[in-house]
Every structure is written in C-alpha cells, then in structure tokens.
Amino acid sequence: MAISIGLGVILALLPWGVGAIAETGSFPADLDSTIPQNIQVVLNTIWVIFASTLVFFMNAGFAMLETGFCRHKSAVNILAKNLIVFALSSLAFWIAGFAFMFGDGNSFIGLHGFFLSGPDNSPSIGDAYDGIYRSLDWAAIPLKVKFFFQLVFAGTAATIVSGAVAERIKFVAFTLFSLGLVGLAYGTIGHWIWGNGWLAQLGFWDFAGSTVVHSVGGWAAFIGALLLGPRRDKYPKGQIAAIPGHNLAISTLGCLILWLGWFGFNPGSTLSADPEAIAHIMVTTNMAASASGLSATLVSWIYFGKPDLTMIINGVLAGLVAVTASCAYVNISSAMLIGIISGILVVFSVVYLEQWQIDDPVGAISVHLVCGIWGTLAVGLFSVGPEIYTWYGEAGGPLVGLLFGGGYSQLLNQLLGVLAVGFTMIGFSLLLWLALNFTVGIRVSADEELAGLDLSEHSMEAYSGFYKEQD
Amino acid sequence: MAISIGLGVILALLPWGVGAIAETGSFPADLDSTIPQNIQVVLNTIWVIFASTLVFFMNAGFAMLETGFCRHKSAVNILAKNLIVFALSSLAFWIAGFAFMFGDGNSFIGLHGFFLSGPDNSPSIGDAYDGIYRSLDWAAIPLKVKFFFQLVFAGTAATIVSGAVAERIKFVAFTLFSLGLVGLAYGTIGHWIWGNGWLAQLGFWDFAGSTVVHSVGGWAAFIGALLLGPRRDKYPKGQIAAIPGHNLAISTLGCLILWLGWFGFNPGSTLSADPEAIAHIMVTTNMAASASGLSATLVSWIYFGKPDLTMIINGVLAGLVAVTASCAYVNISSAMLIGIISGILVVFSVVYLEQWQIDDPVGAISVHLVCGIWGTLAVGLFSVGPEIYTWYGEAGGPLVGLLFGGGYSQLLNQLLGVLAVGFTMIGFSLLLWLALNFTVGIRVSADEELAGLDLSEHSMEAYSGFYKEQD
Amino acid sequence: MAISIGLGVILALLPWGVGAIAETGSFPADLDSTIPQNIQVVLNTIWVIFASTLVFFMNAGFAMLETGFCRHKSAVNILAKNLIVFALSSLAFWIAGFAFMFGDGNSFIGLHGFFLSGPDNSPSIGDAYDGIYRSLDWAAIPLKVKFFFQLVFAGTAATIVSGAVAERIKFVAFTLFSLGLVGLAYGTIGHWIWGNGWLAQLGFWDFAGSTVVHSVGGWAAFIGALLLGPRRDKYPKGQIAAIPGHNLAISTLGCLILWLGWFGFNPGSTLSADPEAIAHIMVTTNMAASASGLSATLVSWIYFGKPDLTMIINGVLAGLVAVTASCAYVNISSAMLIGIISGILVVFSVVYLEQWQIDDPVGAISVHLVCGIWGTLAVGLFSVGPEIYTWYGEAGGPLVGLLFGGGYSQLLNQLLGVLAVGFTMIGFSLLLWLALNFTVGIRVSADEELAGLDLSEHSMEAYSGFYKEQD
Questions:
Q1: For residues C299-328, b (16+ Cβ closer than 10 Å) or e, as one string?
Q2: Chain C residue closest in CA terms to B267
Q3: Which of A243-252, B20-29, B104-113 reaches the highest mean pLDDT?
Q4: Residues near C307 by Cβ (< 8 Å), separated by ≥ 6?
Q5: Distance CA A47, CA A263 (A)
Q6: Which of B229, B176, B253, B250 is nearest to B360 (CA)?
Q7: Stronger pLDDT, B13 or A85, i.e. the higher one
Q8: Angle A275-304/A332-355 helices, nearest 10 degrees?
Q9: Contact A51, A264 (CB under 8 A)
Q10: By CB distance 3.0 to 4.6 Å, which of A346, B44, B245, B364 could disulfide with B69?
C-alpha cells in the first residue's frame, strides 16, 4: 500500500502536459546558422571520443558489479572474464563484427569492411549507417571514431553474458562464446537495426541499444544460464538458497561506474555534438535511472521488509537499460515513468527467475533482457513524435506513441523487433552454447565448482591472506 | 619543528610577486575575435557536460571514501545511502530545488521553473543566474545542460551528510533529510549566492561552492552528528576509542575519484569553454590539493609520529574544498597557501571534534564545513582583483583581497555570507532533524547499532564469506 | 604448440598491405579549410584537458593495481605512497621539472620557467617544445594547459617506481626519491626528447612516452628493486616463493582504469584536436592492448597450465606501454603485432626477473621498462613514414621503419635513445638511492618488514575487522 501511495504521489506530480510541450528547445533562431563542416567534425569527434571512453569504462563497472555479487571463490574467474572479454571483442569486432554491422551488403548483413579496410577504405557506412540521424550522413566523424564507438558498445553486449553464467562456466567456453557473439550475432542483428537493415526499414527504432545491445546480451545470457543449470548450492533439496555476494562495496562502485558510463552510452549515440539533443538525453537518462532506483527500493522495501542494496543497484541499472531505446524520443516525465516501471519489473523478475530455478547470480537477465524488452516497447508507448524536438524531426524517428495519441503502429513495430531479435538470439545462443558443450564443454565439474572456479580454472585466489569460509 | 621548516621552505619558495603578475593570460590579441554563438554553444555544452560527468562520478568517490572509513558492519548501509541519495536528489532538484535556486522570484527564493517547466519554458535564468560570469548572460548553454550541471552539485551537498551520520542513523531518516536538504535548503541558499539573491547583491563571492555546496552540506552534517550523538563504542568510559575504517583501499580510491571529480567541479563552474579560465582553475585546484595533502601529511607525521593515511586523504580533500570558492580569483601561490593552511586545519579539526565528543566517522565536518568556511574567507584575503585575469575582469568578481592590498571590504562580505549561511543551516537542520526524530526517529536502537546497520536496516552483509570480528 | 597456432592464425589474419595503405585519412578535401585560431584554441583546450583528467585518473589505477598485487599488511603503505606521490610530483614539477623540461636553455636542459613564471611569463616553450608536431608551434593551448598535461605525465613516471619497491621501502625514502625523479631526472631527460634537446635533434622519436615516461620510471624502479633486495619471504632457502596479491578485484579495477587512462595518454599527446590523428591513435592503442592481453593470456595458459589473471592484467598494460612510442606512426596491424610481442615479453620477463632474484612485487619492471624499451625500438621497425598519415607528414616524425622498407636508420636512432636514457637513469638512480641509503636509509628493518609496513610505517591496518593471516 505504501508503495502505491509513493508511486501515486510521484505520478501525480509528473507535469505530463506541460512537460511534453514545454521541453522543446528554446534557443533563439540565430543559432541555426550553419557550423562549417571542418569545425563540426572536430566537435563531433571530441564528443564521440569522450562518450566512447565513458562506455569503455563500463567494462570496469561490469567487472566490479558482477564480481562483488558472486562468491569470493569465483572472483578471479569473473575478473579474468570481464578483462579478457574486451580484448576478445576488439579482435572479433575488428575482424568481422563491424563489417557485418555497417558494411555495404544487403538488408540482412554487411559484406564489406572486414579488418576496417576495403576497396575504398571504408565499409561505405556513409550510406549504410546514419545512427539515429538516419536521414543524415553520419560521415561527419572519422571512420575510426565510428569504429571505436561501436566497438565499446559491442564489448558491452559481451560482458552482459558474463554475470549470468558466473560461478559454473568454463573459462574457455566463455571466451569462445564471446568471440561468436561479438563477431557474428551482435554485428548481424546490429545491421538490421543500426545498419539500415530490414528492421530499420520496417520502422523499428532503438536509439541507443535497449535491443541491439542489452536484449542481445540478455538473450545470450538467458540461454546460457538455462543450459548451464543452476549452481550446485542454489537449490538444496528443492529449496531456494540465498547465495549472497562477497563484496557489495565493489558492486556499488560498479553500479555507479555503469551509471556514469551511460552518460556516454545514451547521449553519445547522437554521434554528433548537438547541444539540445545531448542535454535532453542526459536528463532523460538520469531521471529514468533515478526513478527506477527509487521504485526498486520501495518495492523491495515493501516486498522483503527491508531496502535491499542489490535491488537498489539493479533498480538503477534497470532504469538505464529501459530508457536506452527511447531516451531521445520521450519527454522527462515519460522517462521517469519508464524508470518507475522498470524498477518494479526488475525486482519481480529477479524473484520469479529464482523461483523458476533459472540461476542468474547477478540479475543480468532481469536487468538487460526484461528491461531491454520493456524499454524497446516503451518507444511505441511514449514517443512524442517528430514534431517536438529539433533533432527528432531532422533525423527521423519513431511515430507518435500509443499513449501520446499515435495509435498502435509504432508499438507493433517495436514488438516485431523484439520478437525477431528474440527468436534469432534464442536460436543462435542455443546453437553456439550447445556446440561448445559438445566440444570444449561449458560447465565445470561438480568438484571444480565446489572448490571454486578460482582454484580450478586459474589456480589462484582473489583475496589471499584473508580467512574465508570454504564452501 | 620539522614541520615549521618544511612549511617555511615551501613558503619561501612561493614566487609571490612574480606569480601574481606573470600569470595573466598571454595569448596574442588576435584570439579576441568573437566566436560565432552557435559554435560557442556547442563548445560550452561539451565542456559543461564533460565537467558534469566528472562531478557525477564524485558520488562513487564519496561512497568509497565513506564506506572504507567505517566498519564492515555498516558498509551496506553507507553504500545504499550513497547510491540512493543521488536518485533522491534528482527527484527533489527537478521538482523544486532548481526552481528555488534559479527561478525568477525575489532576492530570497525562486518561484518559477518547478519540474523544469513553466510559462516560458524556463525559470528565466538568463536573468537570474549568470554563474561567476555574473555580468554576462549564462544562456549560452541549453537549459537542460544547466540543470544537469547544477543537479550533480546538489547531489554532492547531500552526500556530504552521509559520512558524518554514519553507523547510527536510520536509513529512512537519512533519505527524508536528503529530500529536504536538496529540495528546499540547498536551492534556497543557492539562490542567495548563485541565483543573484541578496548575498550576491551584497558582494559575496563563492566561485564553485565552498559555501553553497560544502558548508551547506557540512552544517547539515554537523547538526546531524551533534543530535545523533556519538556511536556507542566511541567513548567507552569517557575515553576516546579509535574506530578504524575497514577498507582503506576503497577510501583511497574514493579520494582519488573525488580529486578527479573536482577537475569538473571547479573549472566546470566557468559554465563556459574559456581556455584561460579553465586552465588557471585546473592548476589552482590541483596545487591547493597537493599542498594541502602534503601539509596534512607533515602535520600528522609530527603530531601522531607517523604519516596517517586517513589524514593524507582528508588533507587532499580539505585543500580541494578550501580552494573551491577562490580558484578563479587567486594566483597559484595563493592557492598553495590556502591548501597548506587547510591541511593544517583539517588535522586539528579532526582531533578537536573527537575530543569534544562530536563523532564524525569520516571527517566530513572537518573537511567540508571547517575548510569550506576557511576557503570562503580566503576569497577576502587572496583575491587578486578584477584587473589581472581576463575572465575575472569581464565577469565581475570579488574585490582585491586583504593580503593583496584591498582592505577588509571583501573579507567582511565573505564573513557575512559565512554567518548568514551558518545560522540558516543550523536552524534548518535543527528543525528538520528534530522533526524527523519526533516522527520516524533518527537513531537506530542500541541493539541494532551493536549488530550493525547492515543487519538491522538491510538484513544483509557486505562481505559475505569472510571471517570478521563481530563487535 | 597451441600458442604458435593461435599466434599464427592472428598473424595470418592481419591485413598488412591493405591496412598500411587503406588506413589513411579519407575526408574530403573541403575539410582542409582553416579553422580560426581562437576556435582551434578552445577545441585544443577541451581536448587536452579531457585527456589530462584521464591521465590523472591513472593515479587511481596504479594505486589499485599495486595495492592489490601486494599483501594486506603493506596496503596502507602502498596506498599512502600512491596518493602522496602526485602531490609531491605537483610540487616538484611546478618548482623545477617543467622548467628543466621545456624551458629555454640548451640542448641538455631548460633553464627558465621555474615556478611556471619568468621574464616573459613563459618558459618560451613555443620555441622549445612542439610535442609530436615538432615542426609546428604548440602554443595553440594556454601555458597552464600544457603544464597540467605534462604534470600528469610526470606523476605517472613517479608512480611506476612505487610498485617495484613495495613491501620493504621506507616511506620517507620513497617520497624523497620521487621528488628527485620528477624534479630533476624526468625533466632533464624529457628535455632531450620532448624539449627539442639533443636526442630529438638526432632523430629519436617517442610519441607519448614509452621512453620518456615508462622507461624512465622503469629504470628507477629496476635500480631501486636491485638495491633494496628481495622481500624477506621471497626466496626462503634459495627457493622461489609465490607471494600472492591480497586483492585481485582492485588490481583488475586498476588495470581497467589504466587502460582508460591511456586513451588520454596516447591520443592526448597530439596536444591538438586533430580528428584523424586522435581516432587513429585511439584504435592503435586499444588494439595493441587487446592483442597483448590475449597473447599474455595464451602464453601463461601454455606455460603455467592456467590462464593467470595477473598475467592478463600485466599483458594488457604491457601492450599499452609498448604502443605508446609508436601509436601515431604505425598502422593497426603493426600495433597488434607490437602488442602480441609485448604480451609474450612481459610473461617471460616476470619469470626471469623472479629467477634472477630481482623482486618486483607487481611486475612494474617487466611492464614499464622491458616493454618501454621494446616499444621504443618498435618505432624503428614499424613506422610507416611521413607520406601516409596527414598528421605525421605535417608534424614530422620518424623515418620509415626497417620492416616497412626504410632500412636501419630509425632503428639505430631509437637504440641510441634507449641506451642514452638507460645509462643516464642507471647512474641517476644509483646515486639517488645510495644517497638516500646513507642518510635516511631505504629499507625497513627485518622486524618491521615482518610486521608489515602498515604497522611499522603508519601504525594502521587497511582492513580492520577482518581476520587475516599474520605472516
């Protein structure tokens, strides 16, 4: 009840009408004079490089988040996975992922630009990819800036998997899966949506990757966790055992690093130093995260009787994932509502997955898959349509959302994308995980799991010199 | 004695006269041609967004600093407070704080711009707020950039309180206090100083917030610590017990994150991509932090017989807080002297507060309140006056300081601001803390405190699997 | 064997010819119109300040990396060293280091600009220093921006020493050595190479400091570790004892922070917001790090039987150090090969140094000295020559490298620089360490070492409340 009151108060406070109208840009018209392109390129480059470094830093965020949420006996393994995975992603995305995603080809896949090279020294992405500014040429930054920005995104998708399969996966299986995910699946699906492929052509919109990055990683994580089965201590005699994380200080640090990183992830996806767009997206991103953190706190407080730190953390992340698809297309009040709902979703998703015996040690599936889907659909509910924001109108974008009077069209487009990506990733993940299972194997032995992956996979421990429980 | 020598040597080395004169900008005159406003807006936006993200990251700095300085049995609680507080600040500042601070109104409070909206889609802050460029229009960045930059500052004020009240405050009391602090007090006092309110009109200057942010947070922390009383183990039988922090690795990390964040906090407060101003403020900020860290190290080495890591950490932070008010108005040598003094102040402040049985587990009162006051007064001592630096002359700023031949005028202005903010914050904090005490209560029970706030407030522990002392 | 296959596959994949040619800039010619200098100064300032803050953050990276790799009983000491060393560097570089490095003088040392001041308010570095744009005037950023950027580099050199001498050096000896290193040796050697001194005039090139920063720090670390001798527990009865780090979570965090910091270190060394140059250097830096991390992982997996997290970490760092000298002069495939080799070098260097009883607790000598030398020589092997990249041609740079058909000239230039800096740093380090040994002493007593430096040097422990092993 308290929560209904709390949410009711917040909802009542949201200045829906006013906000939707008043938040348009307010600069005087004389700002519209054109910036010379050589200057614009420098501005865009600085902006995108800055955003790229923030997104790169998310690797540290995921490493700390996931490691802290698991047991000390798996810490070295998770750290090693999260460190090497970006090196693997760099290799795979350079060799093939970027070409599949943005190279000239057909509406299903890119076929040029492998190794960041080709006949005309470019995967011709001036044609194939326009970011959210789909109607514009995105060539206003150097090719290698585009590559680096897209690479750090690809790395994010791979790192999402790490947490869900933690504490029982073989190190070698994870590394091979990551190569396949980044080099093949991520690039291909990305082509459909950001490479002007068939989903883009059908009117599916995902501004910064609720689907492209988070759902793709989330589906791979989900199938991996399903195939691996739960950790041996998770369901003793059919009961659910809590397996608390060993270091919530670094998990909280990880959450804050990820929150920081999202200020590159979402506003950086403009790929252009557009002040009004950047500013708007910073604020929608932040308010969704805040609202989601608060709603997850309230829900967990009601539901469990105490404000649960792991739920506050995952609540914040849920809001960030959820607003990623729509951050450029919705007003601040809608962003907060998207966040409030994601904060509720993530708590119940964690609870239900646990009851269904799908063991996800860090909550990655709930955060990235469930809220990635929610965020993708939210585009069809809350988009204000192309008449409100300057960047939206110029660049193209989703139709007016259902709740803003636009009917079901955009929502159905979004649903189509969710389903297409879902089926594809289920199929791909099943195939790759099973192939790995029949070759190198994906799960460590029961003895190795009992000893902990740090000893069995790395012959090391993370916290030498401390006395620790040994189960 | 060694310290007198050390300080003497440093002081003798400072190139007072030369520095004060020679540090003026040295660019050729042809740089003065005007940058077109549409380009300037992009430059300013990139700069302020960059600075904003650094300041946002200070949330992680405070979380690590404070958590490490406390006991392991309070870690979850401090982490949860420091994570949720930015979500709360976002909500409160969006609803009301920004409007109170920068909205049109009177010289006491802003009355428009709630929910970042209003009749003309702006709290009309082009008139009311000019940053330190008080004579200029600060409208050269989008409204939402201004909002986000000011929001991360507001969040900082709230997070300061967390450390001082740690290990005995109720979670719910802290969250409600934070809402009131950010939504009401911070915004109102900020209006007086940065919103062209009565203190600004009387000639009080605080460049980046030694008073607006640090003293405001510091007073709230001080009153909170006073009302809560010391932790139950702090003064056994009237003796002072040392209660060492449980993780100085993350505390040191926190200090370095905060140092990093201050490179957004101070230079970002230009709100404008002015190269000479940014460069100067980077250097004064860094040199004050360095000098303060060194002087606190030397003082603690002499006083305690060993270089105390917690004093090195708080020494660096003390210098950063102290130079915040004056970083744009003083030369490098003065910045170092401000830092040297803050490093001394913070050590003795920690010692005396402990003797007076005001229990501040992390030293927040000494760092933010004591050095915030010192830094605010230092403006009246060291300001070079409006004839030296380009940005200073154009933008307006404090009168020449006492030690630079300007008499007592500016120092008295600063003292007036310190007193006005002090009395106001003492009153506000007393009222709000006492109101909370009579409703939800502010202090956990003795049993809960003994068990640790992690168990009693969150039913969790931060370091599961490690063997720990249980007192 | 597996490794030969792995490396062979990677090598076979590298698109040598295509890459080398195709990676040239591809912007249309109309971008070449000149940006007005007042705008260029703002762009450069924002870029360099951004890069500076990333490099500053490397202090946190080193602190976490080194602390985690040592025992818990030395944690406070290492944290204290790594925090205070930047304050000391700031002082020393402001007083003298910057003047020695970039001030007018002769080809051996700068003689003006102490305290960042002088007759014409500048060390006249417009003439003396041109960054890699040696033929251009680097005066296109304010003096204090140059100072701050160079200061954070100087701090890096000092912090390298900290790890190699950890767990047995006196705190006071380390602080005094750091003052001398940054104030005297770093500035002088830097003058030879970046201050247009004799090595620069002879044609030695080091883009971002494989020699200037990493080898200089590495030599000081090497001599320090040699003179100090190994830790008392390292070689019991002539056997090699593993002394595992106490917190690999923070070490991994440190590695990722350093990786992030290098995106300022290398691309920032353009000192100019040149989009093509920045983009190229981002990518070469990242790909070298990735390749090196992967090769170190593979080598350690083969050699030790398990993928060793400490080797993954040091492998990444080895690649970053190695590509630092050449990142602007080589193509992506070469950068990867440089990284692959550094990843192999670092593993065997760690193994051999250990066998030779040179005790380097964190691997600093292997990472910074060995791979710093390798990277410096690699300029003479892989440089594409001044006809390929726009920034290279305009700014001057190394001759075509040996493997690209340029003969031995550049390689010999590089070798000369390696030897000159090596002999100088050996001499300087021996003198300073021995002088300190005869005055304050450099090594703690056996009892103090047994108790741990935290207790003996600081009377504190880092992890109060945890039960820990006490040897």
A1: bbbeeeebbbbbbbbbbbbbbbbbbbbbbb
A2: C49
A3: A243-252
A4: A80, A84, A171, A457, A458, C297, C300, C301
A5: 12
A6: B229
A7: A85
A8: 40
A9: yes
A10: B245
- Give the mean pLDDT of A306-312: 96
Structure tokens at B102: 């920068």
Q: pLDDT per residue over B376-407, tens digit each? A: 999 999 999 987 888 886 667 999 999 999 99
Question: Does residue C246 come out as left (phi exceeding 0), alpha (psi in the -120 to 50 range) or beta?
Answer: alpha
Give the separation between CA C106 and CA A164, rounded to whole angstroms.
61
Q: Min CA distance, B53 vs chain C (Å)?
A: 11
A438, two tokens: 């029949």
Of B27-36, C123-132, C203-212, C246-255, the one with minimum mean pLDDT is C123-132
Answer whether residue A439 shows pLDDT above 90: yes
**Could you tell me if residue A414 is left (phi over 0), alpha (psi between -120 and 50 degrees) or otherwise beta?**
alpha
Verify whether the Cβ–Cβ distance C45 to B279 is below 8 Å: yes
C121–chain B Cβ distance below 8 A for any pair: yes
pTM (predicted TM-score): 0.95
Nearest to C275 among A145, A148, A467 (CB): A145
Return the bridge partners of B466, or none. A468
Q: Which residues of C touch A462 (CB under 8 A)?
A: 247-249
Tell me which DSSP letter residue B443 carries. Answer: B
Tell me how far apart the alpha carbons of residues B67 and B254 are, in angstroms, rounded to a whole number: 9
pLDDT tens digits, one per residue of A5-52: 555 555 555 555 433 333 444 444 445 568 888 899 999 999 999 999
Please answer yes or no on whether B121 and A252 come within 8 Å at the CB atom. Answer: no
**Measured distance CA(B191)–CA(B99) in Å, rounded:** 9
Residues of B (52-81) whose Cβ lies below 8 Å from A: 52-53, 56-57, 59-60, 63-64, 67-68, 75-76, 79-80
Tokens coding A88: 């693997």
Q: CB–CB of A20/A384 below 8 Å?
A: yes
**Residue C28: how many other CB atoms lie within 10 Å:** 8
- Token pair belonging to A78: 């998770």
The predicted-structure confidence for B189-245, as pLDDT tens digits, reads as follows 999 999 889 999 999 999 999 999 999 999 999 999 999 999 999 999 889 999 999
CB neighbourhood size of C12 (10 A): 7
Cβ proximity of B103 and B112 under 8 Å:
yes
User: In A, which residues are within 8 Å of B464 by CB distance?
Assistant: 71, 244-246
The distance between the two most distant Cα atoms of chain C, rounded to a whole number of Å, is 71
Question: Which residues of A are less than 8 Å from C294 in CB distance?
Answer: 84, 87-88, 91
Rounded Cα distance between A125 and A73, Å, is: 45
**Separation in Å, CA of A338 to nearest CA in chain C:** 31
Q: Give the CA angle between residues C408, C412, C414 to the nearest 5°.
A: 120
Q: Mutation target for A interface from C73, C282, C292, C467: give the one with most A CBs within 10 A.
A: C282
